[in-house]
Structures are given as C-alpha cells and as structure tokens.
Design brief:
Strand content: 5-15%
Order of helices and strands: HHHHEHHEH
Number of domains: 2
Helix content: 40-55%
Number of helices: 7
Distance between the termini: 33 Å
Number of strands: 2
Radius of gyration: 16 Å
Length: 129
C-alpha cells in the first residue's frame, strides 16, 4: 500500500503545489523558470539535491509533468531499476534496442541517483543515454 501512495503522489505532482516554506530554501523564481521547459530544448539537465524525504522525487515528477504538458516525451525511472533493465537487455542481446528506446524521450528523469555506486561500465551506459 505504501508504494501505491507514493506512485499516486508522484503522478499528481505539480509545480504550483511545491511547498516554498523558508526552511526548504527553494528558489521559487528559478523553479518557475525551469517549469517552462526551455532547459529541455537547450539539452540542459536539472539535478535536484537534498536530504532523504525532502521532496526531490516530487519535484522531479512535477518537472516531468510540466514537460508532458508542454508536449515533451518523458520517462521516469529509478536508477537502480534502469541498471537492472540494462543488464537484462545486455544478457538478452537487446541492449542496443533498449538504448534506442530511451533515446526517444526528450526528458529522462533518473530518480534515486546515488543509491548505488556506479561501476565504470554502468556509468558509461547512463552517460551514453
């Protein structure tokens, strides 16, 4: 049940609902500028850093939903899950096909980036994407 609550919350993430209380030290103007999605066309990245439970996933999903609303294709995946997908694809001989599928997305949200240590070959896979 807990996972379902998280997924429901993330699918309803919205830039307008971000909590800008002073303790969070968020730059509202910067977030609103990013919400226009010009960073996608410029091929820039957004890196959201903060303590566990601070709302990083929510914000990432809010940016992803804003991108969808601006007609960009978006893929959200946890990095540990992506690494498993890549390993399976490599073992099944469908690695190139999987990489091509991921390249079709204009925006790729990689959540839980630093949960696992990336060995050189896995880091190369992610950066190639």
């Amino acid at each position: 049940m807990y996972e379902g609550v998280i997924l429901h919350t993330l699918t309803h993430a919205c830039i307008a609902d971000i909590n800008y209380s002073l303790s969070r030290e968020l730059d509202q103007a910067q977030i609103l500028r990013l919400a226009d999605c010009t960073y996608i066309e410029k091929k820039h990245n957004i890196i959201i850093m903060g303590a566990a439970g601070s709302g990083k996933s929510y914000m990432a999903c809010a940016f992803g939903i804003a991108a969808c609303q601006n007609f960009y294709t978006v893929k959200y995946i946890r990095l540990p899950d992506l690494l498993i997908e890549l390993d399976i694809a490599r073992n099944e001989g469908s690695y190139k096909k999987l990489m091509n599928q991921y390249r079709k997305f204009k925006s790729l949200i990689l959540d839980e980036w630093m949960l696992v240590f990336l060995k050189e070959n896995k880091a190369r896979d992610v950066l190639e994407m």
